[in-house]
Amino acid sequence: MTVTDETRDNVVVASPEEIAPVDRAYTCAPASEEPTGEVDSQNEVLEGRVVPVDQPHESGPVDVLAELAARRQERAPLVPVWLRSRADAVQVLAWQAEHTGYVLAYHALRLPKYAAKLLARTPAGAWRVLVELVSWLFDLEGRPVRRAAVSKEESAEYLALSRQRDNRVRARLWTLLIGAVTLTLVSIFVAVAAPAWAQWAIVGVLVAAAGLIGTPADQPLLDRAVVPSRVRKLTSDQVLDALGSLGISAINQALGKKGRGITFPAPIMRDGPGWRAEVDLPLGVTVAEVLDKRDKLASGLRRALGCVWPEPVSEEHPGRLVLWVGDQEMRKARQPAWPLLKSGQVSLFDPIPYGNDQRGRPVSILLMFANVLIGSMPRYGKTFALRVLLLACALDPLAELRLFELKGTGDLSALEKVAHHYAKGATDSAKAACVASLAEVYAELDRRAEVIDGLPRYQAPEFKVTPDLAARKDLGLHPMVVAIDECQELFADDEYGEEAAKYATAIIKRGPALGIILILATQRPDKDSLPKAISANAGIRICLRVMGWQENDMILGTGMHQAGVKATMFTLNDRGISWAVGIAEDPIIVRSAYLDGPTSELIAERAHQLRQAAGTLSGQAIGQEPARRASYDLLADILTVTTAKEEKVWNSTVVDRLAEFRPDAYSQWADLEDDAKTATLTARLKECGVRTDDTWSRDSSGKGRNRKGFHRADVAGALRKRKI
Ligand SMILES: Nc1ncnc2c1ncn2[C@@H]1O[C@H](COP(=O)(O)OP(=O)(O)OP(=O)(O)O)[C@@H](O)[C@H]1O
Description:
By secondary structure, the protein is of the alpha+beta class.
């Protein structure tokens, strides 16, 4: 089924169950013909009903029952639709109140401008009043009739009219005189006896009245507070014109005279606060190509960029495009309040409210048994998105929160009062606290696995934490949420990076089944800042605006950009708006709920009370210091594990000895590859002011070679210097 230039007026849509497969040789029936859907092609005849994509008004024999049914539909509802539900009524009234308030404020701000305009128009107004008065006094409106009587030489009629005019003028003159005398007396009284404010008020009223009278009809006094706009219907012609304006040659060919056209597998219909069109792009054109040109598409549709949301349909072929065109821009659309804003608590075993899609529909995320990766370029809403998730987690009194905000601006500080572990800043101490906490969680993996393994099978039929098991205090299987904002600070750190990556990789892989949820947010999604093993294992991925496909795929998963899931299409103003993978069956566009600092404080306070009542506050939230890792002196330890005879030593040799000597402090280094061992010690020695270099020495088999090492004397010197 095709749409060509000639048949554009009859653009049709085939419902797939009725006509399949789409036939290339099909052309639309002329408008006058009854569309039968029978299609001649070279080899086959397709049968089915043809449904006009623009749903034209049907004409045909009068069907009385249908007519009556239609009339019934035309009846106005007894109770307005918006008054039928409390929520709708509240929304409409709130909107009206806000709108009225806006209009009032708009005009209030412009009062000085309006006053100046009135003042400027006063002379014109006074002149108009004078002209009207003279015209009234001398009965000027009757002048043409009197002139006509003169020209027709109707003397009797003229005399009657003149008499009537003289009487009128006399009466009006008296009226005017009495009025003038009264006005003069009142003016004298006001000038002498009235208080100053009354005098000013009267002058103001007179000026305003004269100004209003002097206002030209085409220059209204008030500015327009709201520019009227009409929500335009989306039609197939608009969609085709817009697609034709993208500069994609295959589309232009398809729309050309001999082209095969573009088909609409479903009628264009209203979907939430906007229109939805489903389009089968020409053979060989993918949705990804259209997504790349979203701005051109918006221009072609003559809509704001924030209203135009093309999406792929993953269960269909890559050329199936769903184009949703909103009545207003997503960022401007009023966002429904976050459901947990004022009340309520959650269980992390159920989906938690996160935000809304373009159509305003709520989007929830099931965090249990998943991990989350949030990424974007700076200032596009990562931390806000993370905070929404963490505030929801805080409202599950069973969830233990370990929060590390490595930017240091205090974005998560509202949650400190409910956090088991909390640290902020890109400092060594925050990173050390984070690694220490990760190490605990890492150890917890084995403990939890053992607990679950030891349970009767009916209690853990799927070998994972269940809501019942999580609620049992004796098992310690409560949900555990570890969140690291700006995690690149940790993973790219010379000292802590490797160790942190080791723990995080294990947690992200084994944690979900054990009730441990890792949430990472980063503004630098490259392989150094986010180890592949971690990014590859995140189940839920939220990508706000990024600049390139590499960052896009690093966060959303390999191949996503190619498949049309492109966070590169977000614009400067699309803050808080992201592509999210792993929340629903298909990737979706979602805007996080907007919870600012003060709002977050209120929610965290409620979470604190919930936890207090449930007796689940723990760790730093009740003033317990996090367990510190054993303190040690690296330089002193190096001197201990080496002898005075060893002038030069290789890094890797020393690391092995250190791990043996003080396993609680150095055992994690022992598991590293040789190169990593060397690099780790190099970094630590550099901090202590000890240089490492290529060092000649012999390995255990007696073979001599060059490897990275250091002079023992340098270590002793650095230690001496520190002690002075
Ligand atoms: N859902 C939202 N709706 C509207 N605006 C939002 C939303 N989320 C975030 N913003 C806006 O985006 C700004 C930046 O948000 P945020 O601090 O979360 O960015 P970030 O990506 O964490 O920045 P950085 O990389 O510097 O840490 C906020 O100040 C806020 O005004």
